Structure formats: C-alpha cells, structure tokens
Amino acid sequence: MNLKQNLIITYSNQKARELKKTLKNPLDKVVTLSAFVNDFFEKNSFKTLIKPIIATSFIYKTIKEEKIDYLDFISQNSDTLDLIYDFILKVNASRVELSKILKDEKLKAIQILNNKYQEFKYKNNLVDLNDILKLAIDGFSTNDFSKYEKIYLDNFEIKNIKFYKSNLELELLNLFSKVSTPLEKTANNNSSAKLYNLEKQPFDINDEVQSALKLARKLLEDDENLKSSDICIITTDINEYAPIFRLYLPKYELKGFDSKGISLKLFNNKKSFNTQVKSAYENIDKELKLYEKFCQKFNINIDLQKTKEKLINETYILEDKIGIELTEANQLIGLNKEFEHIIFIGADINHFPPKRSDNFLFTSQIAQEYFCENNYFENSLLQYEELKKLAKNLYILYPKYKDKRELTASIIIDKNIENKIDISSIKAKKHKIQKEDFLDSIISQDFTKYDGLDVKGANSNHLSASQLGSYAKCPLKYLYINKLRIKTPREDEDGFDVAQMGTLMHSCFENFAKRVQGDKNLQIEAFKSIMFDVLENEYEKFINDPANEIKEENIYHTLYKYTLARGLKDDKEDGLLIKFINYYDEKKEELNYFINSEFEKEFALDINLEPYEIKDKDDKNYFIKGYIDRFDNLENQVNIVDYKSKKADGVLQDKLEEIKNFKDFQLGLYSLFATQKYKKDVDSYLLTFKSKNNHTMFARVATNNDLIPQNRGKDTGVLFDEEYKNAFKANIFTIKEKIEQGDFRFDSSDETYCGYCEIGFMCNKSLLSKGKIDE
User: Fold this and answer.
1) How many C-beta atoms surround the C-beta of residue 338 within 10 A?
2) Distance CA 442, CA 669 (A)
3) Which parts of the chain have pLDDT scores under 70?
4) How far apart are CA 720 and CA 699, in angstroms?
5) 543 CB-near residues (< 8 Å, 6+ apart)
6) SS3 string of 683-727?
7) Is 640 helix (H, G, I), strand (E, B) or coil?
8) Residues 596, 598, 599, 604: is their CA dihedral positive or negative?
9) What is the pLDDT of residue 250?
10) Under the phi-then-psi rule, with left for phi > 0, alpha for psi from -120 to 50, and beta for the rest, what region is 742?
11) 703 near 684, Cβ under 8 Å?
12) pLDDT at 761
C-alpha cells in the first residue's frame, strides 16, 4: 500500500509546531531547514562537529603562538573569543572577503586566525555549521525526494524580513525552491486588533509586569469562559522580563510559563527532583569529560571550571506549558494563531525597536549588508503589525521610568489610543504578618532582651571595626543585628542591598588588581577587557552564592551590574569600574604596579591590641580581626586603602567627626596594626569612585601631618599620634566592658543615625523611661 506523504520545510520550531497541528494528512513531515541540514549531515558524514569551546580555545592558543599583538589583551576566558569565532563563522557563511569589512592590524589578525582555524578543522577531520550547510548544498541532488508526493517550502521572507541567517542558507533554499511548491499562507481574517492602554501608566518595569498580571487576572475574572491559553503576554526582551514575570505570578495567584525557561544556575547547589535539571547536569558533566579528551587530542587548554560555569549559565530549563505564556514578539511572526487577548509589555522607545550595540569587528550596517541581519526598525514594525493581526484585543504597556529616566512610548506604537482599561480593583495576594516577641516587648513595661539592659550571655571575645562602630553609634542596633540576629525584612525583588553592592564592587577591584599585578605592559584597552571579564565572573559567582540568599536574579540586580560596567564596552558615562581603571592607570608607577600590594589582607589584634598572627582557621585567640581592602607596602610608607561605594566629591566632615569622636574605628584599627607591625609612616584613607571626579579620598588617618593636606584651613584627616592612639584604645576597652555587662540601651546622644536606621521601624525610642533610670 502506497501511503501519501508530503514534506514541508519551514523556518522555526514555533511554525513547525503550528503546521503540525493543522495538517490534513498526519503522515506529512514538517521540519525546519536547520533540522533537515543536521539530518543530512548525520546520514552522509563521519566527521565531527566542532564544539564552540574547542574553536575559541584554539583561537586563544593561536593568538599566543602567533604573537598577534592586536589581540594580546584577550584572556583565556574572555567573551571576546566568542565574538571573534562568531565573526569568523559569519564571514565564511556570507562568502565575503575579509578586506571588505576590516583593514590594517585588525584585518591581519583575523586573517591569521581564520586561516589557522580552517587548517585546524581540515587536519583534525572537524566541521562547523557552515561546513554541514555546504555538505547539504553539494549533496542536494543525492536526496531521495521520490517518497514524498509534494515538497512545500515555507516563505522565508516577509516584507524584507529574512528568516534565513546566511547566504549559505539562502543558497540551499534556492535549491529547494526548484523542487518544491510555495506553502500557501492561511488567511487571517482578523484585520486589526482593538487597542487598549491602561488607565494608570505603570511606574517602572516591576510595576509594568505586575500591571500585566493584574490585567490578565481581570480578564479571567470578567469572562468565566476565558482560558489562560487565550491570553498571551508578549515582551520585547525575554531575558529581562522573564525573571520578573516568574517572580510575580504567585502574588496574583496565576499560573504561567515563559519561552526562555529558568536558568540552570538557579538550581546550582540545590537538590532538585526535576528530571530536566538532573539530565542537564549529567549532559554538562559528559561535555566536560569530552573537553578533557579534546584538550589532550588537540593540545589545547580549556579552563574546565569556567567552562562548567558558562555551560550552566547558558542552559535553561523549560517549564510545563500551563497557564499564561510569556514570549517575545519575534516568535509570533508568520504564525496564524489567534488570541483573544495579547498584552504587549516593554513597548517603550528603549526596548522597541531594540538597540543593536556594534562591536570592534563589525557594525550593524555591515551585519545587514553582509550577514543577512534584519533592520531592527523594520523588524519591529513587522512584529507590531503581526500582533495586531493575531489578537482580537491588544493592550499596550510601558513604564514611565527606568533607572530614574523618563521613558516615552515607541515611535512604532499607535498614538492616542482611545480605549482605556482600569485594573485598580485587582489586588495582590495578602500575606499574614507574623507577630514576633519583640513586638510584645515594646508595649510591655518590663525590660526584656529587646530593650538592651541586662542582656545575658553577651560576649566580646571577637570584635571587628564595623561592630565597634555600630555599638558606638547605637548599642541597641548593635544588639539587634549582631547578637539577636534580627534581619530587616526584604522583598526579593529589591535587588542588592547596600552591603551586597559594596561587596560585589570590592571583589571586582580586588580580582582586577590581582590580574594586572606586576604587569608593566598592559594599557587602558586591555584593562577594560580584563575588568569586563572580572565583572562577568564575580557577578555570576555572587548571584549563585547561597550565602547571599538571592532566590532569583531580577532586573535590579542586572541594573546594578550595568551601572558598574558602564564605559567598559560602550561609550556611556563612566561607571565605577572604569573609574577604578583610570585611577590605577594614573597611579600605576607610583604604586609600583601593585607589586608590593596585598588585597583583602587579613589582620588581627590580641587582647592588648597588639598585632596577632592567626595560625590557622581554628585559631580563635584573637580579640579583633578584619580585612584590609588594599595594603600597599611601599618603600617609605604604608598606604592602607578602604574602598567605599558612598558618594563623595570632597572631604566629608561628618565622617571625620565620627573618626575623631570614636564612632568609626576602621581606619584607626588599620593604623594601629600597621604602626606596630611596620616601622614606617602609615596613610590610611577611604576611597570612593562614586564622585564627579574620577575618584575622591574623603577621610583619612595618618601618622604624619605632612600626609594630611589642608582644605580651606581645615585638616582633611586625623593625626594618629600618641594622644589619639591612647584615647582610641581606651574607647575600645570601654565598649568591650559594656558589651560584657549586657548594656545595649538606646543611645539618644545623636539621633542623626535614626534617619536611615534599618531597625528603626522596630525600635521604641522611649525605652529609657521604661521604669529604670539611666545612672
């Protein structure tokens, strides 16, 4: 019996799924062009498809072996290697001469890499994506299409928007066009959706996502026949919006999924019964074992730990398709689905059309001219037209502000949309507030541990500069945070707190310094590349560290990352990290290229406040311990630098007053340690890059008056002489004694600290009149 079967070639998995649902003949075969090519390769070649990490590792090896000075700044794990490899693939797929795009040193560098890469593939019987496309083109006539009654070719171009990614793909499509029939497009009778805005425009991106979910909730409540699958939320940037979408779904008691999926890194170090997660980790382990073999076989070096992190970061786990879908507008182009409601978020000028950032190898114009890349404006215009065809009702949302900047609607969106919809009646799911015993303490006339007097069991065996300062400013706050371990409630969507921001910034400074330490040949462009890599690595480590209790990365986390990165890869206003680079570039000779510097230097003092050498991690015989951000042991003096993320454009008198009046112990402790350990002048200071200038030293403690410049007749620092040192030590011993006596009463001597106190909402400032008189 001869069963009829047709072959249909289409451009995306989404379109393939849609076509399969509408097939008249269930035997018809629907495949994407890339699936056809892969299948042909599997059947007709015994060569091995090269892994990108093998290619980039070979490129790095070639840069070093061929001594390509133009690219000498690139490190082994640099993202720039991926950029170069992607460019080599694009150039070869477009069959374009490199000299049409590049010139001078850049041209020579890429020519060497491309030639060596081609030799490497040939020698080791490897192929890349271009090679398997060429194989499919050259062997096209060998295909047995006789088993298909008809071959249908989908339209790979709509209104100048291309769905093929290279000239090689176009070449294969032209071959198919000679043996196929164009696939007829199903008519969509819905000419244009009814357009809506919200009565109240969302404030920011978080409010925007919540508004979209409120709207979805309202639509479901108002129409009992409406299903979740009848609503689709479309975003202009799935990477940015998906984590926020997932975060707020439970708040509005909705189920949903997104086309991006959940990053595997969020499952890192956590037990999971999800078979996809287990399988993903198993596959990564197999990949790494394979890379180990390749390292030996091809004589290349791969940082397997970094590669594992990268594979985890790039792997996403798709959720069950239950509830409301969040996907990108470009996923719907060319489809014939019909939705009752589409909610379009991110319809602001920043997102739509998206901005393409040029790189050092090619511009957006070159990408359009040679690499079959679509014009971003035309592509976005088509997406918007398609949304209006696919939806009966289309709701347009965008936020008023992003990062304190006012936003406007995209120029693509219809102006003066008359229909408005009110979602103010939709409320979030309510959570009960747990009553803690410290609330009972506030209304009680009896003293409890929360009131700070006669606290039992408090000890002061081990203190730090921050603990001493915390007690000196407000003993009650010190009790709550350091002894009772009461944390301020935080919303997961808040992003990094101030301490976390500082920690991430510090780790970037520290690791950059270690990377450049002692290298006298590096210049500013190399510094930028190194710092960018450091930021990527440190950010990922920080986000994934369970100790930081970050349940899920959100927009505020990435915004802070962009704040740090500004100026490293773009021409935006300098961020904190490039200011640090400029600072180092200016002072590298004076600092002897960090050769005599230590970073995160541990120091300790014994009970007599003399330097103590900690023997091992079990040694607890110190009294005070801490870490110094940077310790420059120079020829004539010791520089001690503590990096701060505080904004300062000059000396901060309030910080100097705190140091003078023993409310801040940090620089004093560093100086006390260094003056006893090293017989040199010591200059300790606080350094910030959050400044109108490149950097600002805004407080200092020094052993020599010559190290303390004057500003308008006032000292810009505190002199660490015998008198100050003795008073400094006496204050430390007083705090130690009070802690051991259990005295943590509220200090009302300076209420300026109350304004931004994190326990202010639970502090009863009338505690002093609670039946006991302060002696």
Assistant:
1) 13
2) 36
3) 1-3, 186-191, 268-273, 404, 429-454, 456-458, 484-494, 713, 747-756, 758-775
4) 13
5) 265, 550, 553, 557
6) EEEEEECCCCCCCEEEEEEECCHHHCCEECCEECCEECCHHHHHH
7) strand
8) negative
9) 87
10) left
11) no
12) 58
Tokens of 446: 């009896």
For residue 374, the model assigns a pLDDT of: 93
Residue whose pair of structure tokens reads 């890339």 in the numeric block: 34
Rounded CA gap, 575 and 73, in Å?
Answer: 21
Whose structure tokens read 């037990």?
A: 271
Could you tell me if 513 and 536 are in contact, meaning their C-beta atoms sit under 8 angstroms apart? Answer: no
Dig out the tokens for 97 from the structure.
Answer: 């001469």
Fold annotation for 6-47+133-182: Rossmann fold (3.40.50)
Helix (H, G, I), strand (E, B) or coil at 93: helix
Q: Nearest Cα to 94, choosing from 119, 113, 78, 114?
A: 114
In the chain, domain spans = 6-47+133-182, 48-124, 262-317, 596-767
Q: How far apart are CA 254 and CA 242, in angstroms?
A: 15
Q: Helices marked H in 223-264 — which ranges?
A: 238-248
Say if residues 78 and 55 touch (Cβ distance below 8 Å): no
Q: Report the pLDDT value the prediction gives residue 453, as an integer from 0 to 100.
A: 67
CA-CA distance, 313 to 318, in Å (whole number)? 14
> What distances in angstroms separate CA 591 from CA 349, 463, 634, 702, one per listed residue?
45, 31, 8, 18
User: Residue 117's pLDDT is what?
Assistant: 97
∠ CA 606-609-614, rounded to 5°: 30
Identity (one letter) of the amino acid at 105?
Answer: E
Would you give the distance in Å from CA 606 to the centre of its chain? Answer: 41
Q: Check if the beta carbon of residue 252 is closer than 8 Å to that of residue 430.
A: no
Note the helical H segments in 407-464.
437-443
Cα 458 to Cα 484: distance, rounded to the nearest angstrom: 10
Residue 766 buriedness (CB in 10 A; 0-12 / 13-18 / 19+): exposed
Which numeric CATH code is attached to 596-767? 3.90.320
Q: Report residue 62 as tokens.
A: 């070639």
